[in-house]
Structures are given as C-alpha cells and as structure tokens.
Design goal:
Elements: E1 6-8, E2 13-18, E3 23-28, E4 35-41, H1 51-58, E5 68-70, E6 76-83, H2 98-103, H3 113-123, E7 135-137, E8 160-166, E9 170-176, E10 194-199
C-alpha cells in the first residue's frame, strides 16, 4: 500500500507524530513554497530540533542529505536522509509572527508561521512552551562575504522533496509560510499548499 499524501494548506500548518525509524517526505508541490519545519521529542516538548545547535554541529548553515539534525540537548532527532532540490534551506531566520508583519506595514492580523505551529500542535493535544527557530525548507537567504543577508526566491522546482527520518519518537510540525510581502515564496509572493507523507522504516 502506498503512503497517504497529506496537504499542508497554503498559509496554514500541520503536525504529525513519527516513531523512531519512520520518515516524513515533505513535497514542495508547486516549487516555490517555503515550509517552516519543527521537531519535538515525543517524551518532552522542551527538547526540540535546534538551529542554534545544528549550525555548530555541522559547521555550516545549510544542512544536506546525510546530516544529523540535533536538538537543544545536542541529540539527533532527525536524519536529513534525502533531498531532490538544489539544497538551499535556511537555518538563520526565525519563524514569522504577527509582530513581523506589523513591521512590514500590516495594520491587521496576518497569518504567520508562529501561530500555525501552535495551532497544529493543538490539533494533536500538544503545547510547546516556546517557538523554536524552524528549519526553513527551501527558503533562500543568500549571505554575502561581509555577512549581509538578503531575501532570495527559492531555487527549488515543482515536486522537489526532502526525506527526514526520525531518530527518536517525535512530533514534526510544518507551516506553509504565509509570507506574501517579501519574495521568499517566489517572485509572485503567492503562498501555496505543500504536501507530506509518512514513510515506514
């Protein structure tokens, strides 16, 4: 039986449980959608995949296939097993929130990845005490030799995917980023849905 494909609706979030040894395949369905991605230990939501700990562990800012993605306790939680895209994923930028959109000029509430994370966890009856910085799949943040960052458009194409395999029992949460002011979801600034499926051992 083939795995079931689940939608991450545009501008919304989803979460799922993974047992150790299972994997999640996340698909950039239309090619230009950033998917903010988090992982929490199933035994303790206070332990989570941590970009601050991944960067020094890997010695670089772009994780690639074969890398272990570690927690704030420096334990592997996911293995970055497969990547069909050019491999540009961001570990620097915090999840967007309503405050961020206020700074970008929004005067009304704007959908955001922070709220999407917590809404997705609530659907599983879970609560995180904080919003960790996510692994921003397909988010292209160029860094120049002087250390300046900029907002690039994704380098991915329709159907590109990554496979993340659980090293421990965990909860993976994803947000199809609602950013529609800066071009991180493509030059059209039009968020779209993405998809995921659970793969066995």
């Amino acid at each position: 039986m083939s795995p079931t494909l689940h939608m991450i609706p545009a501008r919304r979030g989803k979460a799922t449980r993974l047992n150790a040894g299972e994997a999640i395949r996340i698909v950039n369905t239309h090619g230009a959608q950033v998917v903010d991605t988090w992982a929490f230990s199933a035994d303790d939501m206070g332990e989570f995949m941590s970009m601050e700990h991944i960067r020094p562990t890997l010695g670089r800012i772009f994780p690639t296939a074969g890398d272990a993605l570690v927690t704030n306790r420096r334990r592997p939680i996911l293995m970055f097993e497969e990547d069909s895209s050019p491999g540009r994923h961001d570990t620097l930028i915090a999840a967007c929130d309503d405050y961020r959109y206020g700074l970008l000029g929004c005067t009304d509430y704007h959908d955001n990845c922070t709220d999407n994370l917590h809404a997705a966890l609530r659907q599983l009856g879970l609560c995180s005490p904080e919003t960790p910085s996510p692994l921003n799949l397909w988010m292209n943040i160029p860094v120049d030799p002087e250390g300046h960052t900029s907002w690039g458009t994704p380098l991915s194409k329709p159907g590109d995917h990554v496979v993340l395999r659980a090293v421990m029992d965990c909860v993976v949460a994803m947000s199809a980023c609602p950013q529609d002011i800066l071009p991180i979801n493509g030059a059209a600034c039009m968020p779209t849905e993405a998809h995921f499926e659970i793969l066995g051992r």
